[in-house]
Amino acid sequence: MDKDEFLSIGQVSKRSGVASSALRFYEERGLIRSVRAGSGHRQYPRHVLRRIAFVVFAQRVGLSLDEIAAEISKLPEDHTPNGQDWSKLSKTWSLRIEEKIAELHRLKNGLSVCIGCGCLSLLTCKLANPQDKLGRYGSGPLRWMGKPKKQN
């Protein structure tokens, strides 16, 4: 590659909108790669901008960095990912986005229930704390360390 095809970390940060510290972190995680200039500074090939856009978008979809790393490993490293590359990867995100939309609808529908409920308790609310198995028995301490003493 021609040296004009490389960008400094500052240039990549400015063009991608991603902080330099995040770029270094992405590099540590193997999401992007750089080469070192004679001065020891990181130099990134221009096509890294597309990979960074992919990482940022995948994070917005809700993928973890481990999931992103697994997906990004399918992208070509020696050139800018094209529409076909993008299409293959984005199919796996469709389901994730649909799940996110469904969850947001459940939360939205729950808001009207919460407004009318009046419980005002995050401890016993079936919407805010859906895994609370003891909440159906009322509020307060419901488990003891041993059997309760009988009162006379």
Automatic annotation (TrEMBL):
SMART domains: HTH_MERR (SM00422). PROSITE patterns: HTH_MERR_1, HTH_MERR_2. GO terms for biological process: response to oxidative stress. It comes from the Bacteria. It holds the Pfam family MerR_1. Residues 6-74 form the HTH merR-type domain. This is Redox-sensitive transcriptional activator SoxR. The lineage of its organism: Bacteria, Pseudomonadati, Spirochaetota, Spirochaetia, Leptospirales. The gene is soxR.
